[in-house]
Structures
1.
Amino acid sequence: MNSASLIRLGVSVLLSTALSLCAQETGRIGRWVFAPEWAQNAGMRSPVGKELTFVGKPRLVKDPSPPRIELPGRDERIVVANAPDRALLPERDLTAEAWVRVDRITPWGGFIGQVQDNGDFERGWVLGFVESKFSFALASEGGQRITFLTAPTAFQTNRWYHVAGVYDGAEMRLVVDGAVVATSRDQSGPILYAPSGPMVIGAYQDDDEHFRLSGALHEVGLFRRAVPSAELLSHYEARKRLFPEPAPEPIFAKPDFGPFVDWVDRTTVHVSWETLTDEPTVLELEMPDGTQRRSGVGQTRNHSVTLTGLLPDREYHYRLIFPDREGRRVTSRRYLFDSSFYYRPAQPAVSLKTPAASRAAQVIQASGVHQGYALILGATDADLAIELVRQSDLEVVLVEKDAALIQRLRARLDEAGIYGVRATVMRSESAQLPFGGLTANLIVVASGAPPEIPAAEIHRLLRPVGGAFMAEVPRRQSEAWARWMMGSDMAQWNPAAGGGDWHRWVRGRLVGAGDWAHQYGGADNSSCSQDDLVRGDLQVAWWGDPGPRPMPDRGNRNPAPLSVNGRLMIQGERILFGLDAYNGAILWSFSCPEIRRANVTRDSSNMTAAGDRLFVAHGRHCVGIDAQTGARSRRYSVPAAGEEARDWGYVAAEGGLLIGSRVKPGSAYLGDDGEWYEEYAADQIARVTSDLLFATDPETGKLVWQYSGGAVLNSTITLGDGMLFFLESRNPEAIAAPFARQNPNVLTDQWLVALDLKTGKKLWQKTHDFSACKFMTYLVYGKNTVVVTGTDASKNFHTFAFNAPSPRGNQDSGDDIISAIGGRVLWSESHKEDKGHHSGHLQHPVVIGDTYYSDQRAFKLTSGDLVRKDLPERRGCGVMSAGRNAIFFRHHFHGMWDLESNKRTQFEGIRSGCWLSMIPAGGMLLAPETSAGCSCTHAIQTSIGYIPKVLAGR
Amino acid sequence: MNRFCTLITSAAVWAVASARAADWPTYRGDYSRSGVSTQSLAGTPVVSWTWQSKHPPQPAWQGEAKWDGWNKVFDLKPRQAFDRAFHVVVSGPRAYFGSSADDQVRCLDTRSGKVLWSFFTEGPVRLAPTLQEGRIYFGSDDGCVYCLKSDDGQLIWKTRAVPTDRRIPGNSRIISAWPVRTSVVVQDGKVYVTAGMFPADGVHLVALDAGTGTEVWRQVQNDLPAQGYLLASRSRLYVPAGRNNPAVCDIATGKRVRVVEGAGGTYALLTDDLLVFGPGKTGQLGAVEDGSSDQLASFQGNHMIVTGSRSYLHSDSEISALDRGRYLQLARERKSISRQQAELAKKAKSLASKAGTEAEREAIKKQLADLGKRLDEATLAMDQCLLWKAPSIWPHCVILSGDTLILGGSSEVAGMPVASGKLGWKLPVPGIAYGLAAADDAVFVSTDRGAVLCLRSPSASEPSASSNASTSSRP
């Protein structure tokens, strides 16, 4: 007989023994043993007490031991009685007990109870938990209001416990694994019950709240007496060996690259992934009707499957199945994509064609514009608009003043089936068009003659960095066009190559525009984009998708959005977006369930942008993504660590190099349980550390240099003026740790190190006591000053500034350079966190010029002189971001502080997330939706772009 | 949070003045958004005709987030779902609706489904128009309010609801920076409407002269947006605020009276002295009494229908009928008891550490116990107000047509006689039925796929027809 059979026999003997005994037990109201043999219809019989009714589809499981009911925590619960039943409700003395395993922590949880806790109406009792602690709650005539008696320590998820609540009319006791862990004498006398409401098992349910248990129950018992502690101990002792220790985390396989889900059309996706070697894999898709669809891929490294016939607005789960070395199958995690995340504009009928096909093709090819918004001026028919729609993803607006022509154009576009969803006609008789500035990707004049609208107005409307003006210029009209152009910013324009009579002018980058290319603006971690334009009064420039649905919940401290060259890159919940920063048009999106990072406070972001490329760390790779199209055009891999697997950690693009760090697999926080990472708890403050820093040439993919020393704190990696700074722990225990998420107490013997960015050679190093930085450790650079800051467990800020002179001329000598100059302490400062609101202690500093803003204070960066300590109030959980002239933050809503006028502005009705999600770049303030699951009633949840009124020009 | 459902007082609703009894001249029939019609369909209806849009509705907003990770709450309700179908209004033999897909307002012959006329605006028309005295009024995302002749679609007047014409990308379209995102209310010669999305840019609540479109008054709010269907009584205008809670304004001046408390949402229903709104975070309706900001009660559900003696509460999985008069009386009694309890508890707390107050504390304790018993009695009595409860798989919309509740579901609509609470009939429809209207001896169903169906009793119905042809369009 194998061990499993022995255990089963043991359980069976014990159960039968227990069942025979229970009939003799005094005061026993119910004994519900969850095992398949007790199942009947949509419920269960019980050895003692009422039959149970199941809601949802909980699963009764016999093997492996113990027999139990598995509750996934969605819709499932077990009803003992739908209304109060005197036979089930002890008048005074009561004991409730449960063998239980909790898999997911919720604010409230119930194993068994009949409770109402609705504001001032508090009745009944419940055995369960409050957040991570077991609890027993009860209201009596003597207390009137419920007392929640909770255990002093947290329970462990996925572990079996015996939990009991006892009340004897004078004292409440909470007993865990046979030991009394809490008592209270707040209640006395008979128990107060509500006149209505159900008694349920496996849920905390009253009229206001309903939290289903995610976990399992083996047995639940209820007594009309206060069972003595010794007796409860015997209950526990008798069966404790039947319950296994928590199972180790299942080991999931994952592809070496991907999977990526790309939309083909509204009902079709293409899923692709790669394996390390040639092997057959299978994609198993769960359909909404519960069936499964399996798609096999042959012996190859590059795998792809096209899934057709998808329904809109559904969640699709899938797994990848791989053969392991022994030929058994191993699976990936259960992945998800959502068919509501389809953002391409409506497509016209395939049969639609007009005589303007080649003209439209010339415009698209010569302008290089395929997406966003196009204006057509002076159209005499709708054909060009129809063709632009047909041959691109442009939204087209025809502008006209003649009412009769407008009617004809509308009728034609409506007949073509594209009016509204792709093309519209707007009436305007004014020389100034009603559109907001910097909006149009393409403006087309199709009439041959110059428009009545002046060139300056066209210039006002064109989007910077690529917005194109295209005009058909017949030779006979060239002089008229030259006059029209004269004196405008667009005077230098040229015939479009291969474009017939088409001439082209393309708008460049705005002078003074900044980029937000890294987590904290620049790689210097200054949280400043250096944008000179975002200042003064702002107004809404655009709003729209992505909304809250594809975004992770608000508090995970997720990677910040990025904006470079007029594009906005957003990391959602395992989905990436590229948007036009000036009008919000979604350029591309794809989902990848293996791209996710949270708690950036203790790690680094997984993405950076440079020029027209976005770089995203993904497993052991970094993906180079074309920022305009979303094409995954390049891939870089982390340097190997012998036979051991490693992931790509930190990523930055600076000085023509792609900088990376190497972490042990599984180091990154994922935030999948709704964590907020703002408490002083070991599982929240542990730092992700790297064992290697390296630089890669992004064009050739070749490794340029690598550095290894201590355990590098990812949150401190900083670049500036050709130098790379970081803190590393040289504690051997930290260096050798098998898991790279490490508690600050292990990360001792910390050194501040400066490398030459170009060569990776060490410039200088400095040991210092940074142990006060318990909650987090940040590092920022500016003006040859490097600043380390963090808060201690009592939320006091501690800041240390060091000089960091630029490398001198001898770094090419081939020798390691240890500078005697760098690393000198310039100043240090400590103060109690001023903000006094949640996350105040996690504020990331901002550096603008020579001013260092931290918490509620501003210091001179190079001297530490206190400049002011009256920064505007910032109520809420976000952190600051800045341009050169303004700081942005959450103060309930989106907020802005104009440094020039010292004026604070709030954009009411709309809020940011609990981290860094408002970025000034390209002359715009960009704020992707990040409030997501906020339970608050903020009126609007949308991604939004604000523009200074002076730039909008209207 | 209160646990109890509250029923609504009398069913006196504000009929649109000129509408005939069998008309449905505005969204959900009247400015109380009651969803009640006196007309009845005999037997199981059949589809008389279907009008199908070339493109489905283009709602401004996708769903809510996947979950509230902090509170571990799943299945969050969309709180600004007002434009998921082309909602129909009806006067005589003509049905009208706006389109968020092609920016037009259409007039259809209710007998044939034939398009009689259509009218282009310069932006999506997201909310149903309002009919009065031979005119049709509506707003558009282009920031304008329109008044047309309802028989031929001729423009009578068009007024920009804000002083500035600025068009920017919004919800993937070039629209006004101040789109009209509430319905239009026409009452006592005035048109009430809002324009604007973002409080920082100003959200305008405007009254216009119904005859000319000229401005009567204007109020600008800088804290809340305005999205959803306006409600009105003789003295109040109720302005839904998207995911937030509605604002109550003086209809004579537009000045704000208060913002009610609750969990937000654009669904709302008005009765004599109660505003019911939701669906909040997870499908809860809150009820606030006139003159009050805080809730009298809240209850699990998405929609409510109120008649003279009953209320019908419509949730994701069931519909229930309650004795509303009795229930409301008990809810008020219960609120009063709770208030007394709170005051006594506060007093007891203040005495807890004072020596020599034992007798007083004992007395309070006894009073608290007595109040607790009264509270239990009221609670039990409220539970006994339930007349019937029936499972429902049609959670998206409900109206009352005569003595039958019409329920909108996914790919199906159903009829449930109120006397029995049993399923009377059901019919397949293309898509999710988010919109229902009852008039002209027919029920009109609007779905998320852009279909408008006319259901009639078999005896009154012509053979089923499909239509998307237009006979004339303007301007």
Note: The domain at 359-506 of chain A is CATH 3.40.50.150 (Rossmann fold).
2.
Amino acid sequence: MSYWFRNDNRLPQGRLAVASYIIVGMVGVLLLGFWKLQVIDADKYSSLAERNRVRYIPVIAPRGRMLDRDGRVLVDNRPSFSVLLLRDDLPLVEKHLPGISDGLGIPIDDLREQLNNTKNLPKFQPIIIKPDASRADIDFIESHRADIPVLEMIPVSRRRYRPGGFLAHAAGYVGEVSEQQIEASNGKLRPGDFAGKTGLERQYNDLLQGTDGMRRVVVNSIGKEVERLSTQEAIPGKQIQLTIDEDLQQVAEQSLGARPGAAVALDPRTGEVLAMVSHPALDPNDFAVRISGDDWKSLNEDPLHPLLNRAIQAQLAPGSVFKIVTATAMLEDKNPPESFTTFCPGYATFYGRQFKCWVYGKSSHGVVGLHKAILESCDVFFYNVGMHLGIDRLSYYATKFGLGHRTGIDLPSEEPGLMPSAEWVERVFHRKWYAGETISVSTGQGAVTTTPLQLARMIGGIAMGGVFKQPHLLKDPPSVGEERFALSEPTVEKITDAMYGVVNEAGGTARNVMLPGIEVSGKSGTAQVIGYATRERMGKQKKFEDNAWFVGYAPRRNPEIVVAVLIQESGKHGGEAAGPVVKDLIKAYYDKKNKKTQGQYTTENKSEPPGKGSAAAAIAPRAAAKPEDSAAVMPARARTEPQR
Amino acid sequence: MKDAPGTRDYDWWLLAILATICALGVVEIYSATHGSGLEGMHMKQIRWLVIGFLLMFVLSRLDYHLILDQAPLLYLVGLTALVAVLLVGRTHFGAKRWISIPALGELVQVSEMVKLIIIIVLARFFAEVRSDQLDLRDLIKAGLLVGVPLVLILKQPDLGTALVLMPMLVVGAFLAGLQWQHAAVFSLAGILLVGAVFYPPVSRHILKPYQRERITSFLHPEEDAKGAGYQLLQSKIAVGSGGFWGKGFRNGSQNQLGYIPVRYSDFIMSAWAEEQGFKGVLLALGLYMALLLRLVQNAQRAKDRAGMFLVMGVAAALGFHVLVNVAMVIGAMPVTGIPLPLMSYGGSATLFVFLAIGLVMNVRLRRFVN
């Protein structure tokens, strides 16, 4: 063993001192590093730590329900989960996009687009990337909490509508808000939010919507919520009660069946809409979540226009229903006088052109007065009355009765229809009114178009003696509009008598609508879609078949219920095709009313299948003919596209 | 031994500093693990500390000259153990670093013990250099002495521990009279090596994939948001958000919610800085500085050159640990897996520090003895 080094005490004191300086320098440099982080940049890192720690989770306010007039639930909510994407760390989000795309089955481009669309929103606000998560989605998120920390789920309530398109058009549906809606909402709506798109959902969106809340929670490094910091509670949307009677609505849906058309029932005393049906209808539950662009496109291009609410949006020639306008105008103006009669040989000739009556070629009406003319819907009589009155008077009365402008019902996208006038052709076509056009208009053909709702309001209002209540669906609206156009008592008497006769007297065009013990009254209409000449050219095609109308009410004066039914392209006349639907509804109304007064109010709403058992009268009105080459007389628009 | 030193001769200041640092570590380990699946880890750390203190006293009683006499044997044992661990060692976290010692019931990391052996071997080697200037041949010999175990440790692979051997060599050579020309040449070589490590076309050949990943994430933390770059970023967030006064004991969100990676071990300084703030960092780094300066003072008062080299080897190892670990915590260095001595949780690392301090005590106790 060599022990020599024990006594070697040459110590490099200088270099040891250098080591001391190095130690002090090293600690100094490290402290500078801490100073930079903890003092200079402390705020920046504090906010980063806060962003790590705190998540903002929206609390979605449940939407208000819709009840019928008796408090039965028509539109409800169901529980569901939405998938949120937390965007405060965009590079992290970007990294996980492929995994999220795979796991949730959302194309990655969709995700990118959503991120792009929302890049201007505050980063702490998560976005909804998948509403209505499936069981598999929920499992995916739960099992990947640790490795995909940017996903979160929140409970939400989703709309539940009645299946099979029940009340679909009136109720409307909700959908994800569009960019325009977001902009218009002043920050109230965010991407991924739901709002009413059509119908009552849209009309009363502000009532139904409520206000979303926000939860601030602390999450740990694997994204698990460990503490709730604060909760701003959601304010649920308000429940709204509708004027709709579920029982009547049910009858209307069934009675109209698969035929394209519409039915609307009003209480003309109040303007309350008791039932509103438009067929074909779609199941709005399909839209309650999210609809793909392709599906949406095919719906919009569907030739049957299932998205159209025909009750307020179908603008079609009213046909003979319009004769009530002509008749009322005649009685009020006394031009021609009340005693005016004409002879109907099945046609009439004006300005050297022949105008057919609907019985042309089969029989004739003979000598016709006002009462008989309404009962049997004689075109020739009304051609003559129209010639006496002229377009200005017809237009004046029709406009007073609400034709040509919106009824103001509390639904979006109502159409106004059209009541032609001399002023109108001048404005639109820059030409003079042809007197021959008046002949068509006086029987509800030509350029005149109406919606089913307008006709219900008009006939109900006339039977009320000239009081037209604004139709509405909200049970207790702040105010109900009313238009009064006082009609003289004898006029109302004669008109309502005649409409009673249509259903109840020999020769009436809608005897099949008769109900024992109930004073059902009304007027049928059968409107051509195209002129006879065009039809001959095009051959017999379904889409050129006549539209059938029937507007019925009961009782004959001051009615409680008025029902307008449109059946498109039925190929039958109004009383025959549309009458039974009106009959079903009026019957159901009285059945329920009687049960109620007997104190055994239950809902029992099976009605006869439409058309069955009705004495399908051979006599039904066929709307007036147009002249063979009608182009000179009729405005082009009315001939080629009366229905929209 | 007739010249056995008394208790008066222990470096009580050093022990006090040591104990205080350990206490900070235990407090922070408790804060970082309470209420989690790692609950109770601070008690395990206390057990290691007790064992460490005992071993330190045992080692300090044994004359360091006797230990230095056995340096060649220890070196051989160290190399054998390193080869053994490569052959039969347990694999944890993707590296073979542990062998099982039944008596302790824990796995012992062989490379920690090798660090101690290299300190002893280098002290012996440099003490035998007679001239005041270290010539090139001796420098290369010393390099080889360190190089062989270094390569074996790199094989495990354990870059962190391998790196710790370098400052021992550098400090030893410096004190043994390293000439400035050699220093310049080796500095240049070192700079080239570091450059190569950070230069991908070259580093591809000399680094393991996980090591390159750490380098990449250090240089570009934003590209690796959930990997090593995420760890560094979360550590910086923790430190920075602590501010001057800190968020308070058990109150750091980064720590308590688990955003700081291995917050009870390698990143314990991050947790400490978050909860205790800059004032706490000042305290901790001040203690480390006092510890290191105290070691240098002990070296200056050593009875002989060999004792001085022993103490300075320990100072080099501990100083390097503190520097690399703390620099990593503030994001100034890549993640290397080097724990913070005495504060980080860990059995082998704690035992190494106490045994190393035991050597220092040993030298101190014998400073007046002939």
Note: The first strand of chain A starts at residue 54 and ends at 59.
3.
Amino acid sequence: MNFPILSTLIFLPLLSSIFIFLTRDKKNNYGAIYISLFSSTATFILSLFLWYSLDLSTAEFQFIEEKSWINNFIKFKLGVDGISILFIVLTTFITPICIISCINSVKTRVKEFLIAILILETFMIGVFCSLDLVIFYLFFEAGLIPMFLIIGVWGGPKRVYSAFKFFLFTLLGSVLMLVAIIVIYWLTGTTDITQIYEISITKEYQYLLWLAFLSSFAVKMPMWPVHTWLPDAHVEAPTAGSVILAAILLKMAGYGFLRFSIPMFPIASEFFTPLIHTLSIIAIIYTSLVALMQDDMKKLIAYSSVAHMGYVTLGIFTLTKQGIEGSIYQMISHGLISAALFLCVGVVYDRLHSRMISTYGGLVNYLPKYSFLFIVFALAALGLPGTSGFLGEFLVLAGTFKKSYLAAMLATFGVVLGAAYMLWLTKRVIFGVANNMEIKSLPDINKSEILMLVTLAFFVVFFGFYPAPLMETFNVSVNSLINNYQIALTAK
Amino acid sequence: MINNLNIMLPEIFLSLSIFFILLLGVFIKKSFNLIFNLTSVIIIITIVIIFNNPNDEVKIFLESFTRDSFSNYFKILILLSSLFVLNSSKNFILDNKLDKFEYPIIILLSILGMFFMVSSNDLILFYLGLELQSLSLYILASIDRDNLRSTESGIKYFVLSALSSGLLLYGCSLLYGFTGSTNFDLIADQLIKENTGAVFAMVFILVGLAFKVSAVPFHMWTPDVYEGAPTSITSYFAVVPKVAGLALLIKFMFIPFSNILLEWQTIIIFISIASMILGAIAAMVQTNFKRLLAYSSIGHIGYALAGVATGVISGYESAVVYISIYVIMNIGAFSCLYLLKIDGKYKENIADLSGISKKNPLLAMSLLIILFSLAGIPPLGGFFAKFYVFMAVLEQEMYALAIIGLLTTVMSAFYYLKIIKTIYFDENVISFEPVKNKVAQISIFTSCTILITFFLYPSVLNNLVGSLFSN
């Protein structure tokens, strides 16, 4: 196929952001909203088409586009396989939802907000498509600019601190990755990852390079102890910003481990497995405990994200089929669930302008539809069977048991804590007595909010009962990932 | 003989034109506008002459003057950047009553000095060029002679610069004494490690050159001069002499000092690291935009020197690419200052930028792009500048230099973010006069367009620069 479908996918949002830039500033900015909705939906449909036409029986990269870029050494190379396609679809699926959410929540500078979101979408799709380390780095870092502005311009009262912390933490993590990328180039003579997969790097270099990549991914993931930027960023970011941050930006790191760390540095990946397991277990238990003590809803969900990402890193570095499949499943499902939970918080925040748990209570009596959806997502977040949250955690734990009983046992303990903070949150927000007289006069969710939340709820439940579409997509790619890993280990 | 003159045609044309417009200025009253426009025309004609000049290497006048692709590239860069700097500052000059007809003429004189600097292949010619440039710059720094700050900065610059020129000259005389020649090529043959006295001379010359490009620890003059001089002069200082200074530095490393690589490498690495760190830390606390840009330029010179420190051709190339992109970014950044006018006065404090995102969204967005590019965030042009430098540095396995350099990038990102915070996050709106300055707007637009679209063809500059060091 000659049509450059991946480039179209990447640059369509960017192109439409230029159109939005050219629209006139009217009172409601409907022109801008319609253009962005239209283009992001078109991108979504295009990505579905891509998913549909992807050959799932092979682990090879498909739809490869190659163009000489920086002369004679770096090529602009794009391609997808069974793993990355899911993240692309997740990105293109979440973006229209964010745009709908900003109709209610963003009141100032709507046009600029939409431009930022669409440019961010371009960079996010670019991250998941790139098959070249430099291109990957370019998109990975470029995403900081729009996200920094989203937090800083449309955020809450402490937005400046949070935006700076977010930007500097992430930048600090990734500069070491840039060093590693350039070193890889001088070691192997290429930055094309399909070629690097074929070359085995010596052991000593693997350790250092792996650590350099870790420094970037650990911040982005975020792993304990460099997770502290995340609660701040989430709390201050506007709803749509939190949604994108939780649903997609955090997944870049998990994707990075699967795409770069494990295949390029198999020996180092095996060597550092205990380190990752320790950090993951600490993240799961410690941040769950921290989440229990939060009185700010967004902060609670942010900490729960760190805990959930702990399962992801745990699963990836079991380096078993169940573990990795569970991690990918967990990432997709967390992308849906955390997005939904942040939207839920956004819904009540738009009405009462408070994120404190103590402000609410007894919502079930006055906002029944909202409460129903909130409970669905809370249960999904704690991993109730029948929701997508369950499958991911279950597979990760199954994979972990193969490697280490201790780690699996401690991680299972985290599941209990997860149930504790989610149920307690639900109890305090949804049930009980209304603490606030204003709650009694609140309107229930409107059409656009129902549209967003019900769509998400549908997929959360659907993938809870019928995981096959996702599983089949990444099955072959994960198999080949593990095969190559085993071959590389036996060859050492 | 007549062939030799042909090779020097740009210099000859430039000097004759300077005499001509100087006479014109003396005889015609209120001739600023005329002379200013003539200056632009002269610059454009010189660019055309250089473009028509062949790029093959020719050395004339007892091999003291070189014309090759290296000097031609830098001459065009100098002319283009002066053209943009000069024209975008015209309104500023008129508003601040700096419209003396000598202004553009002195600028042309300093350009002539830089021409000899980048073309020189001989200690004497190089020193003459350098002094012609420096003397012009002293006058320019204090051109607003009734203004205390401007005069002070001129005197400061003069005293310190004269000291460094003295050191440089001392180094030159030592070099002549120990190698027996003033010609770069002959010096290169004689200058080996065992020739201790000549190595000693190299240190003095390096000090002088480091002063001219304002690298740490010879940077003290930069913030004061940048802040004190009128903005139109500061923007000239920040861009054009830096280019010439770096070209000269590279030339010294490439030709006369090429055989004592290990001796100067450690010095350059130290200067580079110190500049990067000081540039990043000192800029954090600045409230004056010009002073901040002074420290940021110190940092940027540090990155360019990191490329030079590799001591290989790919490193020099990356330094040239770096300085070229630096020029584009700084022209944009300074042009923004010409559009910030409150109550008839040009503002230069960072706090005055608050609220421009509402009053003048296009200007705010341009500044955003330029600042992120200065910070080196992809996919903007500034990132590629750093990328090439660190490619070269890591090729030589200088890991410590690369890691320190990249960590200082993060530190310097902090103060660029602080300006962006003032522009976009702060609420209080200061009322601006709509300033009409078409040329400044064009400069900003050009610089932003180049920075944004650079990632489409990131190797354009590399292809241009690739041929500079072929001989």
Note: Chain B has one domain: 2-469.
